[in-house]
Amino acid sequence: MSRARGAGLEIELMTRVASQYYLEGMTQEAVARSLRLSRPKVGRLLDRARMTGIVEITVNVHPDIALQLEAALVSAFGLDQVLLVNDQSDEAGQRASVARAAAGFLERQLSDGDVVALGMGRNVGAVPDFIGTPPPRASTFVSAIGGSPLVDTGVNPNEICRRLAEAFAGTPEVLYAPAYAETPAVRDAFINHDDVRDVLERARAANVALIGIGNANDDSAVVRMGCFSVAEMRRLRDRGAVGDILGSFFDADGHAVVDGIGDRVVAIGRADLEGIKCVVAICSERDKGDAVLGALRSGMVNVLVTNLSTARTVLELSGRS
Fold first, then answer.
1. Of 254, 295, 296, 273, which is closest to residue 119 (Cα–Cα)?
2. What is the pTM of this model?
3. Beta bridge partners of 96
4. Are the CB atoms for 209 and 116 separated by under 8 Å?
């Protein structure tokens, strides 16, 4: 039997076992008898069916639980709104769920004449995938931070800007500059360039912002992009940094952490975000509880979109659970 044929039969058997167990409600013993397999073999096939994606398990939490958590976060951090989604078993599925909720918020929120400032990252970059077919909006979408040649196109703020503008039939305004310059002097040269300065001024005047929350780990996005070295990130952590928004790092209490790195970022700043009426932070990663907590305490965020387990973690860390 060829290897491809054998793999096909194995997939068929996994599917049959999973169907009988999950869809028909049969016990593993009954499945084993039906298919003339051993009970341990059925267990192994079910495990493989989950690992290979044949079976995806979603736990739908009762809406009342989500509402209670949303209300607790709003009360604890003075937020305008919190949108929580169910936990998913895989990273891609979790990001999709959170992005779908953020897309729905934008569709409800945006009106003609609105200006939306946009950050970078995989979470923000997933939002355009879930915009439906809303009526055209005469809205403007503006990059609030520069990009990097080392990031995938889909997470680059300029590409996100273009895709969202296309989805809403709005207007994109992109920023042709790096996220982080090599030195403060180079950053100042970018900031003072007419085109860059005009786009950043437009982003500062936005009435809506959609941003991600970064962490301060050695494998964080800004390290992978080559913006920071591991040594620089460790130095930031030594000063208490737990995360960042648009390159503005903060500690668990939300206080700014300045270590000679923030003066290299080409983006709107913390004070600019605090002046935007509706700042939507989106986070799908379960290991960013401390970063989300710091972001909520910073005063830069007033709408949070995340998953239930992250919400619980943030409340536990804050002592509000």
1. 273
2. 0.77
3. none
4. yes
3-state secondary structure of 269: coil
DSSP conformation letters of 84-126: EE---SSHHHHHHHHHHHHHHHHHHH--TT-EEEE--SHHHHH
- Classify burial at 17, counting beta carbons within 10 Å of its beta carbon; exposed 0-12, middle 13-18, buried 19 or more: buried
Amino acid, res. 78: G
Tell me: the pLDDT tens digits for 142-185?
999 988 665 566 678 889 999 999 999 999 999 998 888 888 89
CATH topology of domain 63-318: Rossmann fold (3.40.50)
Average pLDDT, rounded, for the chain: 88
Question: Tell me: domain 3-51, CATH 1.10.10, correct?
Answer: yes
How large is the C-alpha radius of gyration of the chain?
Answer: 23
First to last CA, the chain: 57
Question: Among residues 41, 119, 158, 100, which one has the least CA distance to residue 280?
Answer: 119
Structure token digits, residue 197: 């300065």
Secondary structure class of 52 (helix, strand, coil):
coil
Given strand 248-251, what is the order of strands in its sheet? Answer: 214-215, 241-245, 248-251
Q: Most distant CA pair in the chain: distance in Å? A: 75
Which residue in this structure is represented by tokens 């509402």? 67
Q: Which of 146, 138, 148, 141 is nearest to 163 (CA)?
A: 141
Sketch the domain layout of the chain as residue ranges. 3-51, 63-318
Per-residue pLDDT tens for 132-144? 888 888 899 999 9
The edge-to-edge listing of strands for the beta sheet with 171-173 is: 81-85, 303-307, 278-282, 208-212, 115-118, 140-143, 171-173
How sure is the predictor about 207, in pLDDT bands with cuts at 50, 70 and 90?
A: very high
